[in-house]
Design brief:
- The structure holds two protein chains of two kinds.
- Helices cover about 75% and strands about 0% of the residues of chain A.
- The longest helix of chain A has about 45 residues.
- The relative contact order of chain A is 0.14.
- Chain B is mostly helical.
- Chain B has one domain: MetI-like fold (Orthogonal Bundle).
- In chain B, strands 1-2 form a two-stranded antiparallel sheet.
- Chain B is flat.
- Classes of the chains: A mainly alpha, B mainly alpha.
- At the A-B interface, α1, α3, α4, α5 and α6 of A face α3, α5, α6, α7 and α8 of B.
Chain lengths: ~290, ~325
């Protein structure tokens, strides 16, 4: 007596295995789609922009003529912006993370702060622009200066830095904290001399990734009214300035075909800027990360 | 002799007492938590600042434009000299068109890649592909906007001759590409956290990898997958530069995706980059639009948060 029809089992198995193979290919091509989009994007921008990436491009200010247009003001402006955003956002972000991880008691207030941070991370960047426009540009009358833009960008990337720092601090094992207390160290001494040194690679990696987001953000700068046509370099924190993404936005909007190439060259400069920042982050992560 | 030497120096107990009695140090220990708390409260103040800013300026806006005509008006002509119209529905329509197209692109490809990475790919493949997806997620949106305007739109025009230079289709597809890594990476995290004992159980019962993926892993990771999609939708709604560059500035209340549109975010950018004077109705209108946008994304984020918290399966 045969309870199992061998032929039909084989047939069903073959079918199921074929479907499995077909779907494996489908899922693989779905993955390939993203990689393909990335490849086309890079190819297009490099092939369009490389011709305009001359030494003059870095020495000239923006111009009505594509051949004379340069990125000097925007590049220097973006660097100035980073000099404001980096200290402000890192001090605020790491301070908040230390408070939440080391000092905060488990109560409703701490839960509220945590919940608030995760919601803040989801607020669109253009809304942060509206906040900056009202508070920094108008109420504190900082105008469309490096400082106003820097504060706005700092608040924008604050949630990212907080979360990255929290993870880095949490990864420091409790043993070393207790060893430090056991030696008679106070809480603050333990935080500064034991916890932070171990957490710094993780904090810096997260901070640099967040800063590279601030370099590429355009919408808040437009909303707080950062000008595009700037023929001078910033002279101080309250000076007017322009930044890389603003300059690219302006060039990309212009109808002349040649400005498309100038915009692509600007994008290349922005991408190289980001590449350098990300390489530093990866370098720090690989070189200094400690495992317990 | 040795005894004498020791008694000349302060004992360890004395040293400890001396160092602990330093007032300065005690002050620091007491002050630090307060200072850190003040720093931590800046993130809360930011939220309060955003909400207050938006509400205060929106209330001023509603003194000039009735709430009803703002919420239900189907015409948005703020720049008209005679009788400007402020009905937000056309801007919401523009945002929804882009978002729906983005979701149609991103969800199948994103979940497909997540299943491939979590269930089929070898460790080496995963280690190569995941960083590339991270690169895709780190590209500034202005670059995507440029890509949509100069590559995707001309490409689509070869297939759809009627397609205008500014349209909803091209930015929609590119926003989809932008949010794809987010869905792929968050869903992959959710799928990878399904314990392999369950997977192996299903495999031992004779399931193929596809059956394991679709009938065991995806259902178990469903809350994480849905949360990732909702978060991605929230990102698509708030996306600004892609739609500003490639979407146009013609708010229309219809279902046409081939013509010029305007989203809520693109309107804020259009007004900000022009010179609408401070204190005009147009100036206040960007806050009312920003407030609507904020509510949309807030609701999405709360939904995502609730889903991932409530339906998290514990193993």
């Amino acid at each position: 007596m045969k309870y199992v029809n061998h032929e039909s089992v084989v047939k069903r198995m073959v079918n199921r295995l074929t479907i499995n193979k077909v779907f494996k290919a489908v899922f693989f091509f779905a993955t390939l789609f993203a990689l393909l989009a990335l490849a086309i994007l890079f190819y297009r921008i490099i092939s369009q922009g490389i011709g305009y990436l001359t030494p003059e491009f870095f020495q000239n200010f923006s111009s009505r003529f594509p051949a004379k247009a340069g990125i000097k003001a925007a590049l220097v402006g973006s660097i100035w912006l980073m000099f404001v955003v980096a200290p402000v956002s890192i001090i605020l972000g790491v301070g908040t993370a230390i408070y939440l991880e080391e000092y905060a008691k488990k109560n409703k207030l701490s839960d509220f702060i945590r919940m608030n941070i995760s919601n803040l991370a989801g607020v669109p960047s253009v809304v942060f622009g509206l906040l900056g426009l009202t508070i920094f540009v108008r109420a504190l009358s900082l105008g469309n200066s490096v400082l106003a833009a820097g504060f706005t960008m700092s608040l924008l990337i604050l949630p990212v830095i907080i979360v990255a720092s929290q993870e880095a601090i949490r990864a420091v094992p409790n043993d070393v904290r207790e060893a430090s207390y056991g030696m008679g160290a106070t809480k603050w001494q333990t935080v500064v001399k034991i916890v932070l040194p171990s957490a710094i690679p993780g904090i810096l990696t997260g901070a640099i990734l967040a800063l590279s987001r601030a370099v590429g953000e355009t919408a808040p700068l437009i909303v707080i009214g950062i000008p595009v046509i700037i023929q001078f370099l910033p002279t101080g924190l309250l000076s007017q300035f322009t930044a890389l993404p603003m300059q690219i936005y302006d060039w990309a909007k212009r109808p002349q075909q040649d400005f498309q190439f100038v915009a692509a060259a600007g994008i290349l400069v922005l991408m190289i800027f980001l590449l350098i920042m990300n390489s530093i982050a990866i370098f720090i992560r690989n070189k200094f990360s400690k495992r317990y | 002799m040795a005894q004498k030497q020791v008694s000349d120096q302060p004992s360890v107990q004395e040293l400890i007492a001396k160092s602990n009695s330093k007032k300065q140090k005690q002050m620091v220990e007491k002050l630090i938590p307060t200072i850190l708390f003040l720093i931590a409260s800046i993130s809360v103040l930011t939220t309060i600042g955003i909400v207050l800013t938006l509400i205060v300026e929106t209330i001023i806006f509603f003194k000039e434009v009735p709430v009803f005509s703002f919420l239900f008006g189907t015409e948005w002509y703020p720049f008209a000299n005679k009788e400007p119209a402020f009905g937000i529905l056309p801007l919401i329509a523009g945002t929804l068109k882009v978002t729906v197209i983005a979701v149609i692109v991103a969800v199948p490809f994103g979940i497909g890649s997540a299943i491939f990475l979590s269930e089929y790919a070898s460790d080496t493949t995963r280690r190569i592909i995941k960083p590339i997806l991270e690169v895709l997620a780190g590209i500034p949106t202005i670059v995507y906007g440029f890509f949509a305007l100069t590559f995707v739109t001309p490409l689509l025009q070869q297939f759809i001759p009627d397609l205008k230079i500014f349209n909803a289709l091209s930015p929609g597809i590119v926003v989809g590409i932008m949010i794809l890594p987010m869905i792929a990476s968050l869903s992959e995290d959710a799928m990878s956290s399904v314990p392999s004992s369950i997977r192996e159980g299903a495999l031992a019962m004779g399931s193929t990898k596809l059956e394991v993926a679709l009938k065991v892993v995806v259902p178990a990771a469903l809350s994480g997958i849905i949360a990732s999609i909702v978060l991605a939708i929230s990102r698509a709604i708030g996306e600004t530069m892609i739609v500003s560059l490639a979407g146009g500035s013609t708010p229309k209340f219809d279902f046409d995706v081939t013509g010029s549109i305007q989203t809520m975010t693109a309107y804020i950018v259009q007004v900000s980059s022009g010179d609408a004077g401070y204190g005009t109705t147009i100036y206040y209108s960007i806050y009312s639009v920003g407030f609507t946008l904020f509510l949309f994304t807030l609701v999405m984020n709360l939904i995502a948060h609730a889903i991932s918290k409530k339906y998290r399966e514990e193993y």
